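Hi C.,

You asked whether I'd gotten around to modeling the 376-residue construct. I have! Everything is below, sequence then structure, no commentary in between.
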Amino acid sequence: MANRDFRKNITSPCLRDGVVNPRRHSRVITLGRIKIGGDHSISIQSMCRTPVTRVDECLKEINTLATIGCEIIRIAIPHHSHVTALQEICARSPIPIVADIHFDYRLAIAAAKVGVHGLRYNPGNITNHQHIIELSKTASDYHLPIRIGVNAASLPDRLIQQYGGASPEAITECALSQASMLEEVGFTQIKISLKASDPLTTIAAYRCCASRCDYPLHLGLTEAGPPLTGAIKSGFSLGVLLMEGIGDTLRISLSASASNEVIAARQLLRSLGLRNEGAEIIACPCCSRCTVDVIGMMEKLEPHLSLIKTPIRVAIMGCEVNGPGEAASSDIGIAGANGSWVLFIKGEKVCKLSNNEVEASFMKRVQQVVIDKQGR
């Protein structure tokens, strides 16, 4: 286990009036049609679960993710036989594709030649200087950015020995030494990630790197775990960094469907006031006063609401105590009691709905609110 004395140095700086600090200045790189860094929006990434060889299924997954707000997708390319499938996916994908490469630099070169939009390699298992130079020259020829994707669990042995473990300083040194190697040949379209499975190590590594370079940073906590645990750990780690102005892209890595990752990332950015797209759901946590199935209603409505990209505030409440108040501050809401639901729009009671009709009627009203907002 890495030395954890760095914990004493990771106290978050005070945030004036709770406002997110100004964005860290970073250089701008281009990934497909997306600009990363500078003042450009923090982009949401995920990674395909479907093997690249199942082209149609892979594209179906990518299209679903794009619909709910994913802007960049990463695909693992473990074998040369997968490159032909990658070419078809790149040609048909609605969002930029990043090829994820381990061990064999030639896979990155092959991916670049078939239309991928960006490359990610692991400097813990692609270490040969000449191979990295060849990779960067190909990326330059095809105008592709490279992400140096450092993982604490796969650092080069020399850094583990030098720093006594996978410390934030070792992780940062791995990334910056690789970036220097790329810049030796004039390659500057570089993005860095510095991931660990421990939140405090991750925070400290990103802070360390952010203070030493102007490369755009991709935020992530690797191997975060199942949906609830992973979202909490990632939300804490990435939230602290984003509050400090650090981060240009992010992925919330979960042992769950990629859709969960995208929704969690959207909500994190929205909760920090960094993005406002989509439906913000205000929902009752439930208690013994509830006489309607709020949790069941949430499970029915959330998949529909996740498809909305227009900024909208929705309340789903389970009793008369908080329901009307929360609904009043929302664009639209429902409050349930005694087996039926009251629909509110902008705090005004509109109608009463039975359990049988509430799902369809509510979503119809939500769509109208969205149309009205788009028309303003």
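If it helps when you're writing up: The first strand starts at residue 29 and ends at 31.

Thanks,
B.
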